[in-house]
Design a protein that fits this description.
Number of helices: 4
Helix content: over 70%
Distance between the termini: 39 Å
Order of helices and strands: HHHH
Number of strands: 0
C-alpha cells in the first residue's frame, strides 16, 4: 500500500477539494444544458419527454440546489482541511464543520429522493448519500467525544 506523509496527504486533499470547488462553479454555467440532455435521454421506461414543463422546472431547481449543497459541503471540507493542517483537529469548530458536511449529505439524500420520481437511479444516489451522511455523523460523534476528552485533559495539566 502506498504510504504518503500526512502533510502531503492533507495538501493533496486540499488541492482536490479546490479543483472540485472550481468544477462546481463551472458546472453552474452548464447545468441547464446537461439537465435538459438528461431529461431528453431515453431510458428503460421510455423517453422522458413526457415530463411536464413543471417537471422540467422542478428538476432544474433541484439540480441547482444539489450543486449549491455540494459547493457548500466542499467549502466546509476545505475549511476543515486548513484547520487540520494548522493542528486544530479536536476543537468544537472542527466538530461543527464535520456536522455541517453530514447535514449537507442528508440534504443531498432528500434531493435525490425527490428526483427519483423522474430518474429511478436517483434513488440509489439517495441511498448512498444517506449512508455517507450517517458515516459522517458517526465520525462527528467520535471527534466530538475526543474533543471533550482533550478538553478535560487540557484542564488537568
Amino acid at each position: 500500500m502506498l504510504k504518503i506523509s500526512t502533510k502531503l496527504s492533507n495538501t493533496l486533499s486540499l488541492v482536490i477539494a479546490v479543483i472540485f470547488f472550481l468544477a462546481c462553479i463551472v458546472c453552474a454555467f452548464f447545468l441547464p444544458t446537461v439537465v435538459n440532455m438528461l431529461i431528453d435521454t431515453p431510458d428503460n421506461i421510455g423517453n422522458r419527454e413526457a415530463i411536464t414543463q413543471f417537471g422540467r422546472v422542478f428538476v432544474h431547481i433541484v439540480s441547482y440546489v444539489l450543486l449549491a449543497v455540494f459547493t457548500l459541503a466542499d467549502a466546509l471540507l476545505m475549511f476543515l482541511l486548513i484547520r487540520v493542517r494548522k493542528g486544530y483537529v479536536f476543537t468544537p469548530l472542527s466538530v461543527s464543520l464535520i456536522r455541517g458536511v453530514s447535514w449537507c449529505l442528508l440534504l443531498v439524500c432528500v434531493a435525490f429522493a425527490l428526483l427519483g420520481a423522474y430518474f429511478q437511479l436517483a434513488f440509489i444516489m439517495a441511498f448512498l448519500a444517506m449512508f455517507l451522511g450517517i458515516c459522517l455523523r458517526v465520525v462527528k460523534n467520535v471527534i466530538e467525544e475526543a474533543t471533550e476528552i482533550k478538553s478535560e485533559n487540557d484542564l488537568t495539566v
